[in-house]
Every structure is written in C-alpha cells, then in structure tokens.
Specification:
Length: 410
C-alpha cells in the first residue's frame, strides 16, 4: 500500500489478495457492502494467524479494513481525500507529488505512489465513464460517479501521469448560501435573482477555481420551476434542482476516429429540444459562435468564460467566434455580443476566498469596436458595493414585472 513502511504494506497487500481470491472463487461482483464484509472476514483471519506469530500484527484492524476496502472498491490512498469534505481538488504531478487543495490553497500530501498504482487508479476512475486514455488519445476529461471532474494527461506528453480531480462540492447550491459565505452581498444577490427571473443572458467570468460553475449553479437555483433548462458541457459538472432539465456532455472519438460529439454539435441539437433556457458550461473556442447565434434568436442563456475582468470577458467573447472560420468577422460578432449579453458576473479567488468582485451590464452600444458597459456592483476595499449605475436596457425587467431600481436605489 502507498505511503507505508514495507511490513504493514505487505500485510495489507496480503489481505487484499486473499479477498480477490475469494471473490474469484465465489464468482461475485465486489460491491462496496460485500467488499466490507469480505475484508472484515479476511482481516479477522489474518489477525488470528498474527497471534500465532506466523505474520506481523496489524496496528489497527479498523484502519486496515478501511484502507483495504478503499484499495479494492474506492480510489486507494486517495480515498480519504475524496471523503474529506474540506478538500476541493486533488492532483498528481508524479508518484511522489500528490497535492490537495483546501479553500483554494494547495498542500503537498505525504502519499507516495508507484507508476503502476497511478495507472491503476486512473483506469478504475475511468471504468464507469466509457472514456479512455492511451497513446493515441493522451488526454481525457471525464465525470466521476460523484460528479467530480477528472482530467488526465499521460506520457510522452508529460514526464509522468498527470491527474487532476476537481471534486464536486455540494455545500453551495443557492445565492443565499453565497451571501452567508461573504461571496455576495444581499443587494447583489437580490439583483441577480431579479435578473434570472427576468430572463437576462448572463456571462460568468473568472480565472480557474474562482467558482464559476458554483455561481452558475446558484443562479440556476433562481430559475422559475416551469422553465425547461438544457445544459451542454464538455463533461458533466453543473448540478442544480430543476423539475424539467436535460443535461448533455461531449463524447470522445472512438479508436477509429469516429463518433465524436462536440460542444458545437450539442448547442445546435439543444435548440431542437424546446429549451426555455440554454446553459453552456464554458466557452473556449468556436462554440461561442453557436452560443451567440442561439442567444440572438431570443433564447435566454448563460455560460462561463475564463477572463481577467468582466470587460475582458466581453472582449474575449467577441474574439472567440472568429475561430469558427474566415467568413466570420468582428463586424458581425462585436455588435452581436453587445446586443446579446445582458450581464457579466466576475469572480475572483484571493487568499483562499472566492468572491464576486464585479457585476457589469453592457449597454448594447459599441464605440470604436469596444462594447460599452457600466458596472452595477464593484468591489471597494474588499466589499461588493453598488456603484449608483443602473442597467440601461430594462425591457426584459419590465416584461417580467420587475424594477431593478427597487434594489439598486440608495
């Protein structure tokens, strides 16, 4: 077992192999419950032998049982970090470099894995996903059964197997919870709720690990229960309560190079599914064009994007569609972004704390190729405050029976 001295590791390996032999002999599928029973029995047999002096004693039978069950049915030495609610992310740079993050802050664990153990862990994680990683396809993105996101890169692209696991955190599901955590103020949360109920098109921006997906989930918790929401993602990450929801994810090509399903294809297919709201988990490339075309048709939508600020997010969204082909130019894209995007919510991670630092409303106008926008909320001295500005486009608010001034007025 990883990270242990040789004698205890040999003892646990011996018991684990006894369990495997029993499983093969009995011809059963090793479920978590059955694994616990089998391991408990084998640990007891081993301890009886240890009392006779034939094998080393176990320091703690209960701990040994948990470790062996994790090895057989869980994720081995990483399982305690999957079970730890405070751990947000786990990553492996190499056999001796296993890290975890708590509150956005990385820490090196004491775990040491062999190359074979890392490979076995990845294969076990991919078993239920239908995805693969090999020399012909050295990258893989997948969702684990608990909703965590897995990303793997293998040699010779990297020196060692590089593994990132972004855990699915169920603690934050609503805007109210973000207010309690200090990520939002009550006024800004109420304004965002009003924007959702009014059907505004919202772009959530920020760097990696700033809470963009969490913000999308929290915003979607405010959607009307009668809305039919269709989500499209590279791998499943969004998770929110909705009585009428369809979630789709991309698919890798087969070994023959066929069967790939891209985000662009999913966005186009989603428009045939009678959505009341379209949510694209994240736009990175040419799929941004398909999102803009969908929003330009009058369909309310949301997405996230990597950017340094809210205004940078607008500029980036006006640039990415140009990747779709030479026949797409900024003369079409920039005005479309200005007209489609109603709100940008920018998130940041500072000193382990995730916060919304800016909420910006585009005016719909373009001046010298720049999309005009006004900050509705901005961070001052670490506090998200009203700026005194109001959204210039109020038609959607009025159609839904809302007045943003009721929240934004001093």
């Amino acid at each position: 077992m990883a990270g242990m001295s040789s004698a205890p590791a040999l003892a646990l390996a011996t018991i684990a192999e006894s369990v495997r032999e029993r499983v093969r002999r009995d011809g059963v599928d090793l479920t978590a419950a059955l694994a616990h029973d089998y391991v408990r029995d084998e640990v007891q047999r081993y301890s009886e032998r240890a009392l006779g002096g034939s094998v080393p004693l176990l320091a703690d039978e209960a701990t040994a049982t948990r470790q062996i069950v994790a090895t057989l049915t869980g994720f081995g030495a990483l399982q305690p970090y999957f079970d730890d609610a405070e751990v947000e992310e786990i990553w492996i740079n190499g056999p001796t470099q296993v890290y975890v993050a708590r509150s956005g802050l990385p820490e090196l664990t004491g775990i040491t894995l062999t190359d074979t153990e890392v490979r076995d862990l990845v294969e076990r994680m991919l078993q239920s996903t239908g995805r693969r990683v090999d020399l012909s396809s050295p990258f893989v993105d997948a969702s684990l059964p608990d909703g965590s996101r897995l990303h793997v890169v293998i040699p010779d692209i990297t020196r060692f197997w590089a593994v990132n696991i972004r855990k699915f955190m169920q603690r934050i599901r609503t805007l109210h919870q973000l207010v309690e955590l200090g990520s939002l103020t009550r006024e800004s949360a109420e304004f965002l709720r009003m924007c959702m109920l009014s059907g505004l098109n919202i772009l959530v921006s920020g760097a990696t690990q700033t809470g963009k997906t969490t913000m999308l989930n929290a915003l979607l918790s405010c959607a009307r229960p009668t809305e039919r929401v269709v989500t499209v993602e590279e791998t499943f990450e969004l998770d929110f309560a909705s009585p009428d929801r369809v979630a789709m994810q991309c698919r890798q090509p087969s070994l023959e190079g066929t069967g790939e399903i891209t985000l662009r294809r999913l966005i186009k297919e989603s428009l045939r599914m009678r959505p009341d709201r379209l949510v694209v988990g994240e736009v990175r490339e040419a799929e941004s064009l398909d999102l803009l075309i969908a929003l330009n048709s009058g369909l309310p939508g949301m997405s996230s994007i990597h950017a340094n600020s809210a205004r940078d997010a607008l500029a980036k969204l006006a640039t990415l569609p140009l990747l779709a082909g030479r026949n797409i130019d900024s003369g079409f894209v920039v005005p479309t972004v200005a007209g489609c995007i109603d709100l940008v919510v920018h998130c940041e991670l500072r000193k382990g704390r995730r916060r919304v630092v800016e909420i910006v409303a585009p005016s719909g106008n373009v001046t010298s190729g720049v999309i005009e926008a006004s900050a509705i909320f901005a961070s001052r001295n670490g506090v998200l405050e009203r700026t005194g500005s109001f959204p210039t486009r109020t038609a959607k608010f009025e159609a839904a029976g809302y007045d943003p001034a009721s929240v934004l007025a001093s």
